[in-house]
Design goal:
Elements: H1 4-23, E1 41-45, E2 49-55, E3 58-63, E4 65-69, E5 75-76, E6 93-102, E7 105-111, E8 114-116, E9 138-139, E10 144-147, H2 149-152, E11 158-159, E12 188-191, E13 204-212, H3 214-218, E14 226-237, E15 240-245, H4 258-261, E16 274-279, E17 286-295, E18 301-309, E19 316-323, E20 329-335, E21 351-356, E22 361-366, E23 383-391, E24 395-404, E25 414-420, E26 437-438, H5 440-448, H6 466-474, E27 477-478
Antiparallel strand pairs: 1-4, 2-3, 3-12, 4-10, 5-9, 6-7, 6-8, 6-13, 8-11, 13-14, 14-15, 16-17, 17-18, 18-23, 19-22, 19-24, 20-23, 21-22, 24-25, 26-27
Helix pairs in contact: 5-6
């Protein structure tokens, strides 16, 4: 039975939290660091790991998470309904993810379902905890609450990501879900081969925790709720690889930051990795986009992109990069981490293809649209996809496009990245046979393309005609030295 004084105080706290949400309606996104107005939950530490075995080549793990409230108001942590006091949906859900940094690229290789929070303690990991009268139903200002990996791996307490709107932090509770598959169901699932040291020489691994909750989101503080910590792969026992945590937790940094922080080795930042925030308007959430361009040393360059959806409920359906005509693109590829354990989403790979344009081309990776399939394998919140290709031209500044999956008020964001530059023009346009002179042989080539499209379309209007003939005749004779 709840004490009447405690009940009254909690009712006051709920009203205060609601007022904070009203005063901070659609606040500007708050980046990492500093003290936030209102409740602000972060991952203060990732303390431990549990493993559960392997089924069909997929191993199951859980990562412990300790939350901290670094804001200026209590954070609601209600797992029961008490009329006039709190709603059972007003508690955090906790995602666990695993990443691998190998061969100059960071990929997400595993994800869990969501641990639903219950009963916040009042510890002092991040600051001196200000004692509050709300007990289990709130995380006090400056207070921390530890969840062991055993709790975060408890299958009955893990709910689907698909029922959570990470932009607002709103979800139904109790959640509905099919029964978990034995051993690995709902837990942090990772392909066993992705951890095998024999197949991943020199690889670095990073665990990530990510909290989502409604009052934190309403206060504009949902963009610093992820932290990562380095992991090591040890012995193979009981049918799976043992993974351990090492070093300190990088607070308020999602694991995509590890690509830059450790890109040249443990604690050795890679200056060629660029990471930027991509914020949607009207408070619709944030993506992080990272990229790196590398010289392959054989006349080609490698273009690598990582796109993390932090909390955009609208998700992403396509990643498109413009490529000038004359650029040869090869080795187009992707890495997509799949939902599991009965989530409704498709696990189909994205389509990869060249999309022709007027005077230029573009290369795109895309899933089905929302209209085609509401459960398509879009880039949902809390997940990161990779897109990559090689090209025979060096980089220059350009803009890629991230196409959103669901409808909304924000436009598809244009993202500043490095892309292949246009190849230099031939030294003598119109010298089709490269013999150093424009003559009857070249005229014959042009006339053979007459009325169509081809290399003789000098003005790129889609047809070889009199304008192009005039250009060729104006260059008649020897090419300039």
């Amino acid at each position: 039975m709840r004490h009447p004084v405690r009940a009254a105080l909690l009712a006051f706290a709920v009203a205060t939290a609601a007022l904070v949400g009203t005063l901070n309606a659609k606040p500007a996104p708050r980046d990492e660091g500093g003290v936030a107005a209102g409740p602000d939950v972060i991952v203060g530490s990732l303390p431990d790991v549990s493993k559960y075995g392997t089924v069909g080549g997929v191993s199951a793990y859980a990562i412990g998470t300790t939350s901290c409230n670094i804001g200026t108001a209590i954070l609601l942590w209600c797992d029961t309904n008490v009329p006039g006091l709190c709603n059972n949906t007003q508690h955090p859900v906790i995602a666990q993810n695993l990443y691998r940094l190998k061969g100059g690229r960071l990929e997400m290789i595993g994800m869990s379902w969501l641990k639903h929070g219950f009963c916040a303690l009042s510890e002092n990991l991040c600051a001196t905890c200000q004692a509050d009268p709300y007990g289990c139903d709130a995380l006090g200002i400056g207070c921390s609450d530890p969840y062991s990996s055993g709790l975060n791996g408890q299958q009955s307490g893990l709910g689907p990501r698909s029922q959570v709107n990470a932009t607002t932090g709103i979800f139904p509770y109790p959640f509905s879900a099919p029964s978990p598959p034995a051993t690995i169901g709902r837990r942090l699932q990772v392909p066993m081969a992705a951890l095998d040291p024999a197949q991943n020489a020199g690889a670095l691994y990073f665990g990530e925790g990510h909290y989502v909750t409604a009052d934190d989101a309403a206060a504009g503080n949902a963009l610093n709720n992820g932290s990562y910590r380095r992991m090591t792969v040890g012995s193979f026992t009981s049918g799976s690889w043992t993974i351990s945590l090492t070093g300190s937790t990088s607070q308020q940094k999602f694991a995509i930051e590890a690509w830059k922080d450790h890109g040249l080795g443990v604690g050795m930042p890679d200056p060629n990795v660029v990471i930027q925030n991509v914020d949607l308007s009207n408070g619709e959430g944030r993506f992080k986009v990272a990229y790196k361009v590398s010289d392959n040393g054989n006349g080609t360059w490698h273009y690598e992109f990582a796109v993390l959806n932090i909390n955009v409920d609208r998700a992403a359906q396509a990643w498109t990069v413009p490529v000038p005509p004359g650029v040869t693109v090869t080795n187009m590829s992707q890495n997509i981490v799949n939902h599991h354990s009965g989530e409704p989403y498709s696990t189909a790979a994205w389509t990869m293809e060249e999309v022709p344009g007027v005077g230029s081309g573009a290369f795109s990776w895309y899933s089905q649209t929302f209209a085609q399939n509401a459960n398509a394998n879009a880039l949902r919140w809390g997940t990161m996809f990779n897109f990559r290709f090689d090209a025979d031209q060096p980089p220059t500044a350009g803009n890629a496009t991230l196409t959103l999956f669901k409808s909304g008020s924000s436009a598809n964001p244009s993202v500043a990245v490095l892309l292949p530059q246009a190849p230099p023009p031939p030294p003598c346009p119109g010298d089709f046979n490269d013999d150093g002179v424009i003559d009857g042989d070249d005229l014959g080539t042009l006339l053979g393309q007459w009325g169509g499209d081809g290399s003789a379309d000098f003005n790129k209007d889609g047809i070889v005609d009199g304008d192009d003939l005039g250009t060729l005749l104006g260059q008649w004779g020897d090419c300039p030295a």
